[in-house]
Amino acid sequence: MRRVLVVDDEESMRQMLSILLKKQGIDVVTASRGQEAIDLLESGERFSVVMTDLSMPGGVGGLDVLRAVKSIDNASQVIMITAFATPETAVEAIKSGAYDYLTKPFKLEQVKLVLDRALEKYALLAENLYLKEEQRKFRPKGIIGESEPMKRVMEMVHRVARTKTTILITGESGTGKELVAQAIHDASPFKGPFVPVNCGAIPETLIEAELFGYKKGAFTGASADQKGLVESARGGTLFLDEIGELPLSAQVRLLRVLQEKKVKPVGGVEEITVDVRVVAATNRDLKEEVECGRFREDLYYRLNIIPIELPPLRKRGKDVQILLRHFVGVYSEELDTDVKGISAPALAVLLDYDYPGNVRELQNIVERAVTLELGTMIELGSLPPTLRPRVTRSEVLELPVEGIDLDLEMQRIEQAYLEAALDRCEGVKTEAAKLLGISFRSFRYRLKKLGLGDDDANNEDD
């Protein structure tokens, strides 16, 4: 935008500056009073540069206009104009955010020089603000998290999506490498398909034919020409998951695809040009694989142009609770259950767990819990046995020689806790249920089972 607001009570000055600026292809708006300029700004008018006289009649001067500009659009640049410049007024103007000031009378070349620089600064600031806003709004589909490590990942996805540069995504299993690859593809301007390939799931004898295609008669069973997955991804993204599993023979062919953008089908003579962006992923240390001779060094460096490392879930802090809440909502709707959240004891266990399987493991735990839970809150009993708190032998009462009736003993303990919770909460059942980390429905059921409930099932606070 090249739009300038000229604010001066002298008509001759407004006309002179308007003529000068319009000759430079600049859109010019004028105002004869400071308040008129402020009204324009508050009505939504925006300007790359505001040139304003310092002293004007009406009680609203150039410094007032300057403050209004900076409070509304900090990227806009303000040039002060004055006939009585002093060091004090200049310092005050600069401290308040003015770009520069001109002293009347001034030469037209001086105006052009100062204005051109102000326009350049505005363009730079406006672009930076736009990029920051776009980055703030950018939320790749499927990637959930507010932790600093994940913010850095999303920032990188936003930056690389518009390029066709090869990307290598690393991270432990279950961290969401394919989700990130898909997000890069979705945010890119390239409209071709997203073609995922798990390099470890295709037999070594078939991997080259699957990736690069083959010609009729190339091997037994090749009854017709077959297009490979690389060619199928033309114009889009080829996602090579578990790239460390790729055999050395196929690595040579892939290197040519990356370097020359060409692929030769198995049994073929002519090469086919393919315009495809490659995103690879691995949970292996490829440097170590190179040192051991299991991965080509030249291919490693060709893949590792832009590395994106995904953090393990145990290093993502508050993201664990955000993901838990998200997956409870997803599976509650998908499985059509009444589960709305996680009880305090169960949540404490889930937040304390390390998740060696990362997000995938957390997702599976929540799906299992939502499936098994009968109440509205996920309780400890719905979590996998390996996650439930273990009671040590030292915490168990001494077992009598004659033995006990375990069911009766458990019933006695349960009744004691229910009554203690009711006493502490002065009979308010909803609060007592929260104290025990169970749903109100479960609390009411237990009371009834033990003969402690009343007939009014809807009375929550008696």
UniProtKB/TrEMBL annotation:
UniProt entry tagged with the keyword Membrane: no
GO molecular function, one term: sequence-specific DNA binding
Domain annotation Sigma-54 factor interaction: ranges: 143-371
Domain Response regulatory per the UniProt entry, residue ranges: 3-119
The keyword Nucleotide-binding belongs to this UniProt entry's keyword annotation: yes
Modified residues (4-aspartylphosphate): D53
Keywords, alphabetical: ATP-binding, Nucleotide-binding, Phosphoprotein, Transcription, Transcription regulation
SUPFAM superfamilies with a match to the protein in the record: CheY-like, Homeodomain-like, P-loop containing nucleoside triphosphate hydrolases
Pfam families (UniProt xref): AAA_lid_14, HTH_8, Response_reg, Sigma54_activat
UniProt name for this protein: Sigma-54-dependent Fis family transcriptional regulator
Organism: Microvenator marinus
Lineage summary: Bacteria, Deltaproteobacteria, Bradymonadales, Microvenatoraceae, Microvenator
